[in-house]
Design brief:
This protein is 35% helix and 25% strand. The chain has 286 residues and is an alpha/beta fold. Bound molecules: 1-O-phosphono-alpha-D-glucopyranose. Residues 109, 129, 132, 169-170, 189, 201-204, 228-230 line the site of 1-O-phosphono-alpha-D-glucopyranose.
Length: 286
């Protein structure tokens, strides 16, 4: 079955970014000239996704407004004969069909995903966590979809994680299947480095079968008293195969102020309009 639907989880409080996140969702922080969330939406669209379900929460309305159509803005741009900009703005609001679901209590990633159970229905679907931005030739989600199409079962994106960062990720116990593809034998959410079953950590891209919802419904709270997607996957392993795929591309973690800043610099340096000048400026600073 074709992967048509994707869930983007944008419900986190963004406490690491306080005070700015008092009145602005962290997903709307800029990465050069676009908000962070747009990168995930574009990755999904470029991977063939037709419908996005975005999990939001209180204080996230700016995201909905951003992807909506703005007649007022279009009118002003029309009057000013800003044809190119007008076209860009129209394209943005026509990117894809997005449906918003509010998570009323933030009880963890698994809990957020469960909110889409009825609308996803009986088909496999994708999940994107927008803190993870992946720069690659073929969109990372598209790479995962290719693996899904070969194996017709759950696929998680993974990459090598340094020892000191293992406590930030779900870590898998892998069994190599082929170049870059592993069968997942078990998973642990945010282990101590000494308890990690490998150095392959889950990055925020998943293709899952709808049976994940049944698993989420029965698992108790796990790490940090949250309903963890990792625990649901561990349960799902008892009845279904889960693969992990070491994708091609560079992953940036924008979930912390320093990570966001590093990503901003990396993307700005690659930008043809400002890259050269920024490089010169940084050289002078140093
Ligand atoms: C979540 C998942 C974790 C995964 C990570 C990827 O953690 O729980 O298993 O490795 O995303 O970014 P979070 O970053 O929400 O704490």
């Amino acid at each position: 079955m074709k992967i048509r639907k994707a869930v983007i989880v944008a419900a986190g409080r963004g406490t690491r970014f306080l005070p700015i996140t008092r009145s602005q969702p962290k997903e709307m922080l800029p990465l050069v000239n676009k908000p962070l969330i747009q990168y995930s939406v574009e990755e999904a669209v470029n991977s063939g996704i037709e419908q996005i379900f975005m999990i939001t929460a209180m204080g996230k309305r700016a995201i909905e407004d951003y992807f909506d159509r703005s007649f007022e803005l279009e009118y002003v741009l029309e009057q000013k004969r800003e044809t190119k900009l007008l076209q860009e703005m129209r394209q943005l609001s026509n990117l894809v069909d997005i449906c918003y679901i509010r998570q009323k209590e933030q009880l963890g990633l698994g809990h957020a995903i469960l909110a889409t159970k009825d609308i996803i229905g009986e088909e496999p679907f994708a999940i994107l966590l927008p803190d993870d931005i992946i720069d690659s030739k073929v969109p990372a989600l598209g790479q995962l979809i290719e693996v899904y199409e070969q194996h017709k079962t759950n696929v998680l994106a993974v990459e090598r994680i340094s020892r000191q960062d293992m406590m930030k990720y779900g870590i898998i116990e892998p069994k190599k299947v082929s170049e870059s593809v592993y069968q997942v034998l078990s998973l642990v959410e945010k282990p101590e480095p000494t308890e990690a079953p490998s150095d392959l950590g889950v990055v925020g891209r998943y293709i899952l079968t709808p049976q994940i919802f049944d698993a989420i419904e029965v698992i108790p709270s796990g790490k940090n008293q949250e309903i963890q997607l990792t625990d649901a996957l561990q349960l799902l392993l008892k009845q279904q195969t889960v693969y992990a795929y070491e994708f091609e591309g560079v992953r940036y973690d924008t979930g912390t102020p320093l990570g966001w800043l590093k990503t901003t610099v990396a993307f700005a340096l690659k930008n043809p309009d400002i890259g050269a000048e920024l490089r010169e400026y940084l050289r002078q600073l140093l």
